[in-house]
Design brief:
The chain has 15 helices and 20 strands. With 457 residues, the protein is α/β, with parallel strands linked by helices. It has two domains: 255 residues, Aldehyde Dehydrogenase, Chain A, domain 1 (3-Layer(aba) Sandwich); 183 residues, Aldehyde Dehydrogenase, Chain A, domain 2, CATH 3.40.309. Helix 12 links the parallel strand 15 and strand 16. The model has no long low-confidence stretch (mean pLDDT 97).
């Protein structure tokens, strides 16, 4: 059985019965049938359905926001913003899908063998399995589902077990918006069931957002079946602050990036790397902004940080903090805990070899790392097995352009908050995964890039 528990007060919300093998088989059959019909619809019709999805999200954003907050603890304001972001992404793809998926003409007219015409067509693959995490229960799913469905694929969702209410609500979003049965389905399954579903011939590809071990397992299964996979496996994002940075703005943004969603974000700024000459001033500013955080009931309007989603996640943050302190890190603030409610932690004197530097810290734990100069700052930023997002703060735009290219990550945000945005590709390198979500590149991850060469007879 799957049980949803409110992380703020530990009250049981609801229990869900897992799908039986018979139910799973029925859903796979339905997905297979739905793909034949859905992919045959004109692109304009699929686009119109996804516009309706955006309308449904907007109409019910309060309801969906409250469900997210109850199940995983983010503040209600953050939850409603998440629903709004999903709706905006529906509009983005509805406006741009025809351009993204348009046939691309290729000039193949050559004297030694001219073709009448040649073009590239972008066609859907079929049912795509999505294995998704709990930290952004709607956005993580929708950034795969929206472009995938418009492209003509159908979706099968395996969501995290602590947000099954959100998983079923997402299925209802598509149903209420008029999509045919089977176009998007939720599978109430555990992780052990993923292998069998991914090996089913009706499932054509998989996308996963989660841990490194989970990604390695899913990629291995997909590889054994010669199936496409896209992996987003988290990060230990560096926020590099150079001596000429706007320190007040950098500190405010750093704390917001690190502590939003109670620190449970793949692209949160996790390692603050600061040039030595401004480190003291930056540290004081960070402490000031941490002190402004108001913890409490995530449903309350005055609360700016809710609880962590599960007690075992809070255990991990405590372990990483204490292990780093044992190796010489200094705790400047935080550390108190009540169940899933963890006071924001700031560690100073963090160095490579410490858990807070080497591992992904998925909670309200920020660390300060001193760099001798800008070259040392870039070296420390790249001294990580991860490579998802990053940030660079400097007022010298020539320097920003040069150094942004040196940071080993899927994205670099200069003088701004790291974010995922439908207009630009999202994904990582190294152990942060491979493939891209969002933008035109993300839409084309799960299509057949088909060459058509036509000669006159």
């Amino acid at each position: 059985m799957f049980t949803s528990v409110n992380p703020y007060n530990q009250k049981k919300l609801k229990t869900y019965r897992p799908d039986s093998q018979t139910a799973i088989e029925q859903k796979l059959k339905q997905a297979d049938r739905a793909f034949a019909d859905w992919s045959a619809l004109p692109l304009a019709d699929r686009t119109n359905y996804l516009r309706k999805v955006g309308d449904t999200l907007t109409k019910n954003k309060q309801q969906y926001g409250e469900l997210m907050t109850a199940e995983m603890g983010k503040t209600l304001k953050e939850a409603i913003s998440e629903v709004e972001k999903c709706a905006t992404t529906c509009a983005f793809y509805a406006d741009n899908a025809s351009a993204f998926l348009a046939d691309k003409s290729i000039d193949t007219d050559r004297s030694d063998g001219p073709a009448h015409k040649s073009f590239i067509a972008y066609q859907p693959l079929g049912p795509v399995l999505a294995v998704m995490p709990w930290n952004f229960p709607f956005w993580q799913v929708m950034r795969f589902a929206i472009p995938g469905l418009i492209a003509g694929n159908v979706g099968l969702l395996k969501h995290a077990s602590n947000v099954m209410g959100c998983a079923l609500a997402l299925e209802d979003v598509f149903r209420e918006s008029g999509l045919p049965e089977g176009a998007f389905q939720t599978l109430l399954i555990d992780s052990k069931s993923v292998e069998g579903i991914l090996k089913d011939k009706r499932v054509k590809a998989v996308t996963l957002t989660g841990s490194g071990p989970a990604g390695a397992s899913v990629a291995s299964i997909a590889g054994s079946q010669i199936k496409k996979s896209v992996l987003e496996l988290g990060g230990s994002d560096a926020l590099v602050v150079l001596a000429d940075a706007s320190l007040e703005k950098a500190a405010e943004t750093a704390v917001k990036s690190r502590m939003q969603n109670a620190g449970q974000s793949c692209i949160a700024a996790k390692r603050f790397i600061i040039e030595k000459s401004v480190k003291k001033q930056f540290t004081d500013l960070v402490l000031h902004h941490i002190e402004q955080i108001k913890q409490g009931d995530p449903m309350a309007s005055e609360t700016t940080m809710g609880p962590m989603a599960r007690t075992n996640l809070a255990d991990d943050i405590e372990r990483q903090s204490q292990a780093s302190i044992a190796k010489g890190a200094k705790r400047l603030v935080g550390g108190k805990r009540d169940g899933c409610n963890v006071q924001p932690i700031l560690l100073d004197n963090v160095k490579p070899g410490m858990a807070a530097f080497d591992e992904e810290t998925f909670g309200p734990l920020a660390v300060l790392i001193e760099a001798k100069d800008e070259a040392d700052a870039i070296r420390l930023a790249n001294k990580s097995d991860f490579g998802l997002g990053s940030a660079l703060w400097t007022q010298d735009m020539e320097k920003a352009d040069r150094l942004a290219r040196q940071i080993q990550a899927g994205s670099v945000f200069v003088n701004g908050l790291m974010r995922s945005d439908a207009r630009v590709p999202f994904g990582g390198i190294k152990t942060s995964g491979f493939g891209r979500e969002l933008s035109e590149e993300g839409m084309k991850e799960f299509v057949n890039v088909k060459t058509v060469w036509v000669e006159k007879v």
